Amino acid sequence: MEQLLIVTTGGTIDKVYFDDKSDYQVGEPQIGRILEELGVAFRFSVIPIIRKDSLHISREDRELVRAAIAAQDARHVLVTHGTDSMVETAQVLSSIADKTIVLTGALNPARFRGSDAEFNIGTAVGAVQSLPPGVYIAMNGRVWDPAKVRKNVAANRFEAVD
């Protein structure tokens, strides 16, 4: 892997708590800070495309993400994304050929102690380097085919579709 392209779209992984509003909002992308703190041994660049909760990502937003990734030379792409509509975005990205694209996110904000963000990012980084071209989802310690996975909201995890 010459260089990893990271595209950020917002989601829980980037949420921060605004005390004055007693609310969570999508903040700055966290993945660059996380990778730097972990001392990774590869080059990466971060391109923030949108900053939304994934429930608010539109068809136009997905097309913007697809076009941005397609326009880059990088063959290895990691996308941070909210978990609620990650599968839909992965399906849109499947039209991109000759790139390995892995989407990941977090069920708890990266800034929170005990967040699954670092674990999911680590899984995604390993997957994007070792898998053949295609689109994948890395969550809960597993790598999924987007056509065969869904988020189980009640259990707060990803699981195989029958």
From TrEMBL:
<keyword id="KW-0378">Hydrolase</keyword>
<feature type="domain" description="L-asparaginase N-terminal">
    <location>
        <begin position="4"/>
        <end position="159"/>
    </location>
</feature>
<dbReference type="Pfam" id="PF00710">
    <property type="entry name" value="Asparaginase"/>
</dbReference>
<protein>
    <submittedName>
        <fullName>Asparaginase domain-containing protein</fullName>
        <ecNumber>3.5.1.1</ecNumber>
    </submittedName>
</protein>
<dbReference type="GO" id="GO:0004067">
    <property type="term" value="F:asparaginase activity"/>
</dbReference>
<dbReference type="InterPro" id="IPR036152">
    <property type="entry name" value="Asp/glu_Ase-like_sf"/>
</dbReference>
<dbReference type="InterPro" id="IPR037152">
    <property type="entry name" value="L-asparaginase_N_sf"/>
</dbReference>
<dbReference type="InterPro" id="IPR006034">
    <property type="entry name" value="Asparaginase/glutaminase-like"/>
</dbReference>
<dbReference type="InterPro" id="IPR027474">
    <property type="entry name" value="L-asparaginase_N"/>
</dbReference>
